[in-house]
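## retry 2 of 3
previous attempt timed out at serialization; input unchanged, resubmitting
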Amino acid sequence: MSLPDNYLIYPKRGYGQDHELYDWRQAKDRTPLAWDGGAKLAVQLIVPLEFFPLNPSGSPFKHPGAMATPYPDLRHFTVRDYGNRVGVFRLLESLNECGLKASFTINGEVAKRYPPLLEAVQTAGHEVVAHGLSTNHIHHEGLSLEEELELVKETLACFEEPPKGWMSPARNQSSRTLGLLAKAGVEYCLDWEMENAPVAAKTPDGPMTLLPNNYELSDFTLLHTRRQTEESWLTQMKEACDFLITEHERFGGQCLGLTLTPYILGQPFRIWALREFLTYIADHADIAVMTGSELTQNFREQIK
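## retry succeeded, writing output
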């Protein structure tokens, strides 16, 4: 079977990349960054608080953590609910013990349904990041401009103070998402991960900072999808930090976004691994743990 003649015709094909959101350049040509306090590696801890409906629509696809068996899938639903009821408070206690602040990416539905949970996060001094309306509200190209604009507005309206950061449900976007976020006053996004450093993006409605959020090192990926052990997860977290610190000499300050999911790491048989890792990065002289806003401000001050 032969390919049609127009298969390889793509109007945006060009040298380096096929979009204009940010300039293409090799890592060796990037201006080295310097983090506050002289740290060689900036770590952002990302804690997702998500609302999973018992009967997801599956349009245009099901969220990776969505219900998996026929309705009512109480087994998966109650595990996710455990994260918001129990697991997250183990994470909050662990972060507090190590004196670390995280970026809590929160669905608008969570903010509306569980005000005490949102209050607990804010009272502890962590940053609130908008995480779309719910896991059942995926941003994608099939949405009209008006539909996606309404999703962004409705999400941000769920918070008393509009968050400065954003992570899309399932980290999925349309070609318009970044522009709509910039127009709404959002400053940074956690959907992208093409670098070990923040990237300055350009949209028709203003600038957007893209902070790397590592999917390969996500606890969902390693512990849930790949079913690795807690010991393996801990080893990989430390190895990633150690290696990026060695990259500082060649490329300047490095950046690593790590996801800590309450219904995964908040389990009683896994919390020990999280506490050991948090202690490790808190005590490491070359590592600075920063929220998304702190990281964005530090980055933007250096690229003026």
